[in-house]
Amino acid sequence: MMISLLSVPVISFADAATSSASTIQAQIDQQNSQITQLNNEIAQYQNQLNATDAKKQTLQSTLNQISISLKKTGTSINLSQAQISATELQILQLAASINAKQASMQSDEAALGESLRTLDRTESQPLVLQVLSDSNISAAWNDIDEESNLRDAFQVQLNSLQAAQQALTSSKAAQETKQTQLQQHQQALKTQQGSLTATKQAQADLLTQTKAQEANFQAIIAQKKAQEASFESALTDLKASANQMVSQSEITTAAPGVLQWPIEGPITISQFFGNTAFADVHAALYSGHGHDGLDITAHIGTPVHAALSGTIIGTGNTDATPGCKGGSFGKWVMIQHGNGLNTMYAHLSQINVTQGQHVSTGDTIGYSGETGYATGPHLHFGVYVSAVTQIVPLGQITNGHSPCSKAIMPVPPVSGYLNPLNYLPATPYKTL
Predict the structure, then answer these.
(1) For the residues 75-88, what does the mean pLDDT come to?
(2) Is the pLDDT of residue 287 over 50?
(3) CA 176 to chain centre
């Protein structure tokens, strides 16, 4: 009884590099080339935006800045679409590889199983019967020796099959990672499309307000400055009326990273919290109390993210209050967090959330702009003590007669404003 080693199946995996797979790889290479090109275009637009930042603010420079932002955002959308296409192709490529491995493994498992059953039937005979069934003892020992070699070969194949299963598991994990990346690209695309819409609307609003006349543009800036003085006076009265000592137990312990930056990418701060040089020069605007937040430069339409998970406890638009246009926060959002802090996001061009909505850290809550008292596009980011913050009409407590007295906004006492830098990550930033 001779058992031929030729009956041992040889493990082989299907080569994924078929003509179809080659086509997919060529498409992936093409998408990657396009992605590189789009990244270069975005970098060029960013350089142009940086150049416009240094110019004196005029209607034309503002429109140029918006136009470049639109081009940059449009290119970013094309980049996201290219990344989505590349990821979809990579998922398709992985799926083909997984299918090939599964088919090969099933074939190998079936062949190995049949060989093992044959070997098992042979080994089930007692040794003495195996010896007697052969024509001579030498042949019997040869058969037994071959059976030993066969067992060793089966063990090698089992090890190979186990390695193939581990490789398949890794391939599936890689596919899941690609699918997650695809979802992220799709979310980024949605955000960028929202940014494009917000920027276009801001451009249209500016042209409507100014009637494309430089004199009208400068008049709007002058009106904002005049409105701000009246607004700050009323706000100071409200702070004084509501002023109460904030207990130390109500103030969240300062630590870097309690909050995340609300703007992605390199951070440039145009005005710090407290008695800044600008606040000192314009003491009448801040009633000697200094600046109550952090101003972060951000071109119109820049996505603004929640600094921490929490609940939207208020949104508003002070520009919509008759007589208050250009005098306050403009479009604003406030989030209450579970750690005793509220965060404020002001001068937005668009609000994407509603009161009562829960948001997670990093969610897009709106887009930066130049609404309210803002003589240039930026995000005003404030951190307040939750326990002492009210959202009320500006004149509710003081019964003031400011043009902004009916504007609804968050107001804590002076001691309820906190320095945002005490809670943000210690990320390097630039200053203007």
Answers:
(1) 91
(2) no
(3) 19
| pLDDT tens digits, 107-156 | 666 666 666 666 665 555 554 555 555 555 565 555 555 556 666 666 66
Q: Which of 112-121, 292-301, 410-419 shows the highest mean pLDDT?
A: 292-301
More confident residue, 95 or 76: 76
> What pLDDT was estimated at residue 364?
96
pLDDT band at 220 (very low <50, low <70, confident <90, very high): confident
Q: Of 173, 381, 126, nearest to 271 (Cα)?
A: 381
pLDDT band at 9 (very low <50, low <70, confident <90, very high): very low
Contact between 252 and 291 under an 8 Å Cβ cutoff? The reply is no
| Of residues 419, 280, 259, the one with CA closest to residue 339 | 259
Residue 152 tokens read as: 């060793």
User: Of 225, 381, 217, 207, which Cα lies nearest the Cα of 306?
Assistant: 381
- 327 pLDDT above the threshold of 70: yes
The number of C-alpha atoms within 13 Å of 271 and in the hemisphere containing its C-beta is 23
Any idea what the Cα angle at residue 124 is, between residues 121 and 127, rounded to 5°? 125
d(CA 266, CA 428): 8
The number of C-alpha atoms within 13 Å of 179 and in the hemisphere containing its C-beta is 9
Q: How far apart are CA 50 and CA 42, in angstroms?
A: 12
Q: Are the C-beta atoms of 184 and 362 separated by less than 8 Å?
A: no
Annotated domain spans of the chain: 5-201, 213-431
Q: Which of 374, 381, 379 is nearest to 307 (CA)?
A: 381
Question: Cα–Cα distance between 306 and 344 in angstroms, integer?
Answer: 10
- DSSP, collapsed to helix, strand or coil, labels residue 176 as helix
Q: What are phi and psi of 92, to 5 degrees?
A: -60, -40
348 vs 371: CA distance, rounded Å? 6
Contact (Cβ atoms closer than 8 angstroms) between residue 336 and residue 311: yes
Structure tokens belonging to residue 364: 């897009």
Q: What dotted CATH number matches 213-431? A: 2.70.70.10
Angle at 295 between CA 293 and CA 300, to 5 degrees: 135
Give the whole-angstrom CA distance, residue 155 versus residue 115: 12
Q: How far apart are CA 239 and CA 276, in angstroms?
A: 20
